[in-house]
Design brief:
Length: about 270
């Protein structure tokens, strides 16, 4: 797959996402009428969108094994590049609209490693930026020992927002339980910790909406951390408004089907 082909796929994918789910297939059938391979590729991205990588904006690139040399220069920073006061160390996760990197403070003020979240260059449409900023605002309201904390935020050299979160060196909850073969009591204790973090968010009128093992990491020391408020819903507050991307939007079901609550999955 060359860069021009990928651009065509990405453009159709983003156009499909702007349409209600029940209108996407008809749109794609028309747009890809003479190209069944193109249709299949875009469908695969839409399927992956429902099960995005942790920390990302629920829009997945992982459906493709796309070589990094096919990504146009400047789309995402390379290892060693600076973003604000941070130096990129390595990617942690990548999606169709953004990426999260392990980064370190590089301005000499103090030493710190963070999970740095960025919008991919060329994908910063109004709704995507709004959603990104909404997640940053939600994280700013949360201060709990079992929720990954917002540490910093700013703008890249080209004016796109970024934010730095607490870096959690852990594994998903289900993998942690399998590896440590914990007793029922130990597993229940972990779930209770997760519930405490979720209840804390609920008391601040924030609903996570994407609770699943990959968004709940456990460190080697057994500390639980809840991640990824990218599709969280604010029930009330300063950010509310008709165009608030944190609120439920008619016609755009953003969720992980295997873990979605019945009311999310219900047509």
């Amino acid at each position: 797959m060359d860069a021009a082909r990928w651009t065509q796929i990405q453009t159709l994918f983003e156009a499909a996402l702007e349409r209600p789910p029940d209108a996407r297939e008809a749109f794609l059938q028309t747009a890809c009428a003479d190209d069944p391979d193109l249709l299949a590729e875009v469908r695969s991205l839409l399927a992956a969108d429902a099960d995005a990588h942790p920390l990302l904006d629920s829009i997945a690139l992982e459906a493709f094994s796309l070589p990094t040399d096919l990504l146009p220069a400047g789309i995402l920073p390379a290892e060693g590049e600076r973003v604000g006061p941070y130096r990129i160390l390595r990617p942690l996760g990548r999606g169709g609209m953004g990426a999260v990197f392990l980064a370190e403070r590089a301005d000499g003020q103090f030493e710190q490693r963070v999970a740095l979240k960025l919008i991919r260059g060329g994908s910063a449409s109004g709704p995507i930026v709004q959603r990104f900023q909404s997640e940053r605002q939600i994280l700013a309201r949360l201060n709990h020992p079992h929720i990954a904390r917002l540490l910093d935020g700013g703008l890249t050299d080209d004016g796109q927002p970024f934010f730095a979160m607490e870096y959690v060196d852990g594994v998903p909850l289900d993998r942690y339980c399998d590896a440590h073969a914990g007793s029922i009591e130990e597993r229940v204790a972990l779930i209770r910790t997760v519930c405490d973090a979720v209840q804390y968010a609920h008391r601040r009128l924030i609903v996570h909406r994407d609770l699943k093992p990959s968004n709940i990491l456990v460190t080697g020391a057994g500390q639980v951390k809840l991640l990824d408020f990218g599709i969280a819903k604010m029930l009330a507050g300063d950010a509310d408004g008709p165009g608030d991307p944190a609120l439920t939007q008619t016609g755009r079901a953003v969720m992980t089907p295997a873990y979605a609550a019945p009311e999310q999955a219900r047509p």
